[in-house]
Fold this protein.
Amino acid sequence: MGKIIIPCTNAADLATRLATEIKAGVVQYESRKFPDGENYYRIDTDLTGKDVAVVQSGYPNPNDALVELILAVNAAKSQGAKKVTVVAPYFPYGRQDKRFKKGEAFSLEIFAGVLKDVGVKDIITADAHFRDDYKPYNLFGLRGHNISGGGILAHYMKAKFSLNKLHIISPDFGASELVRQAADETNSTYTALQKKRTGDFSVEMSGELNVQGKNVLVLDDIISTGGTMAKAIELCKQNGAARVFAAATHGLFVGDALWKLRSAAEYVVTTDSVKNETAEVSLAHEIAETL
């Protein structure tokens, strides 16, 4: 029995690509807001006995995205869906993966629990900030599957710019497995730097960089404010890199981040986990293989 794809607003395009990849039907849905700002979601399709995948991105408007996702799962279950898998390559609140200070809410645990309570069994994420590997995992009662966008981004850049050799830089040791896997898949060399955040918009970075005369791809899981990526690009240039490109699985580009990075790097590219003007690489095939 094939999957049925249920889109949410932020990931409608990715849902269509995924449906094409697995030759699945896409459910028509109605999603809107009431005048007071509350969300409404409806599916007018009988899903009795079907396995469905609800596709959502946690950006922009992560609070609305989460509410819509929860409503979509509930709507699918109300129409008789047998099994619901959430496809959320960029899962909101994933960076609050523990209590850093006493009294903080543990948002990742809370929202995973809500999804479990409304009937979700499996969740597919991409380069989740709370995972440093690509093995199946337990997300507070959900069966988690974490895929990587690193390899397809590196392949894309090598092909687009006809690069025979590429050196991939992880600007944060937390993304080193993402970068290592991308390097392995593209026969590239790689380096992982150490990052220390000194504020919401500032970072310090350390580590040995041997990039003299090399084509460098700075690769991270998320570009948010762009501070981490900008600092890594600057260091690569200072150490004599021939060309410097920037890539990430999730492109949030808060404020002027995209302008800042385009001013610093030769090219900026992301996947379609978050809809934005740099999302030239689709995760649909990788998601399909996991589904």
User: Anything to note?
Assistant: The chain is about 30% helix and 30% strand. The two ends are 12 Å apart (CA to CA).
